[in-house]
Amino acid sequence: MLDLISIEYIKLKNNSSFWIILVFYMLISFYVVGKADSLPAGSDVFANPLQFPMIWLTSTYCASFLVLFPSILIILNIGNEFKYKTAKQHVIDGLSKTTFILSKFISVCLIATIITIYVILLSLFLGWQSGGEIQDFFGEQFSFITGFYIQLIGVLSFAFLIAILFKRTGISIVVFVGYYFIEVILYYLVFKDSPIRDYLPLEVFNSLTFSPIKDNLDSFSGLSIPEFKLSLNWFSAAIGAIYIAICLSLSILIFNRRDV
Question: Is 85 left (phi over 0), alpha (psi -120 to 50) or beta?
Fold first, then answer.
């Protein structure tokens, strides 16, 4: 397994698309999070979104909007395995199909870890720069870092499953992006008055980060905004972990039942 981890690391390290998308994500997230303090404050709670401990809520929420970019990276990674037939070669060389999927899932965890560490460092920098008190560093909002990490792995796992299912990069990206629109329709129209909508996959992952300007969004959009919570909803985190396990299990099942 250590050899597989090393192989995945080398593949990512030598992948120009990985570095381009990762750097782009970091630059855009730095800009978006840094501009959060220019938004109108909806209440005293949100008056200083870049100071500790509110920065943890602000940074994770803003960064979550950009999860599409690492998701595309995962799809490209899996698509290349099919395109260049390296997946088939690994199986021919004696690697079991299940072990291959697990080894590729390492890239999901690795990318999610790198991005989460970056968001933590970004939050530390912006929180310190904004003049917040360092003793407020570990507020209950720090739990949103855990939620963000689960959210990242969850969305990337969903992209991983789609890439395994459809093989071709272009089709997988279209299906992945298209599902976002499908779930919006399900949430606001099909299951509008049903509690089922709160358990849709992407809605569960989205609930793991929370807007620092919910009061403003309520008046701007006219939509019903959930009651504000200052800490992570651990029940949603548990449901998210279950969805991750489902995505991984389905990926293994699909890959084992088809010809590479």
Answer: left
Q: Is the dihedral of CA 79, 18, 252, 101 positive or negative?
A: positive
Look up residue 178 and give its two tokens.
């298209």
* CA-to-CA separations, 242 to 27, 103, 155, 237, in angstroms, rounded: 32, 20, 13, 9
**Longest distance between any two alpha carbons in the chain, whole Å:** 62
Q: Which helix (H) or strand (E) holds 172?
A: helix 169-185
Structural tokens at position 130: 């904004």
Is the pLDDT score of 255 beyond 90?
yes
Long-range contacts of 18-22, Cβ-Cβ distance < 8 Å, separation of 24 or more: 18/73, 18/77, 21/69, 21/70, 21/72, 21/73, 22/70, 22/73, 22/111, 22/114, 22/115
Closest by Cα among 152, 165, 64 to 110:
152
pTM of the shown model: 0.89
Which one, of 147, 139, 70, lies nearest residue 110 by Cα? 70
- 3-class SS at 53? coil
User: b vs e for 244-260, b when ≥16 Cβ sit within 10 Å of the residue's Cβ?
Assistant: beebbeebbeebeeeeb
Q: Are 10 and 86 in contact (CB under 8 A)?
A: no
As a whole number of angstroms, the distance between CA 232 and CA 208 comes to 6
- CA 5 to chain centroid, in Å, comes to 21
Summarize pLDDT for 216-245 with one digit per residue, the tens.
444 444 444 444 556 788 899 999 999 999
Q: Which two tokens stand for residue 251?
A: 């990926």
Q: What is the pLDDT of residues 74-119, one digit of tens each?
A: 999 999 999 989 898 888 888 899 999 998 999 999 999 999 999 9
